[in-house]
């Protein structure tokens, strides 16, 4: 309860950002989804590089942080690869038939 009282303003900000994000994404035209996904993949790639660098900073004896960091890097790589597959599939939809 003390944690919530100390961070109430931050919690309100996160909730506000969630609602703003939902509104922004809901109002994006379908034609812009592919470029936005490509941009999100690029941002995720940069974050992934930072995560790997941080993973190398963990002491080798701290197994819990190494496992959690490894899981986070794996899930980030899964997110990036899935985003590229979806982007490629969407771009193939716009190719003209020959």
TrEMBL record:
It is a multi-pass membrane protein. GO terms for molecular function: NADP binding; proton-translocating NAD(P)+ transhydrogenase activity. Residues 11-95 form the NAD(P) transhydrogenase alpha subunit C-terminal domain. InterPro entries: NADP_transhyd_a_C. It comes from the Bacteria. Its main location: membrane. One of its GO terms (cellular component) is plasma membrane. Its EC number is 7.1.1.1. It catalyses: NAD(+) + NADPH + H(+)(in) = NADH + NADP(+) + H(+)(out). Keywords: Cell inner membrane, Cell membrane, Membrane, NAD, NADP, Translocase, Transmembrane, Transmembrane helix. It is found in: Cell inner membrane. GO terms for biological process: NADPH regeneration. The chain crosses the membrane at residues 12-32, 39-58, 64-88. PANTHER family: NAD(P) TRANSHYDROGENASE, PROTON-TRANSLOCATING NAD(P)(+) TRANSHYDROGENASE. The transhydrogenation between NADH and NADP is coupled to respiration and ATP hydrolysis and functions as a proton pump across the membrane. This is proton-translocating NAD(P)(+) transhydrogenase. It comes from Ulvibacter antarcticus.
């Amino acid at each position: 309860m003390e944690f919530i009282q100390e961070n109430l303003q931050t919690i309100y900000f996160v909730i506000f950002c969630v609602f703003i994000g939902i509104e922004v994404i809901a109002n994006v035209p379908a034609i812009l989804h592919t470029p936005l996904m490509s941009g999100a993949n690029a941002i995720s790639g940069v974050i992934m590089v930072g995560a790997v660098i941080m993973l190398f900073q963990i002491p080798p004896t701290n197994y819990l942080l190494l496992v959690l960091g490894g899981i986070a890097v794996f899930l980030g790589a899964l997110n990036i690869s899935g985003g590229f597959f979806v982007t490629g599939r969407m771009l193939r939809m716009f190719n003209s038939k020959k």
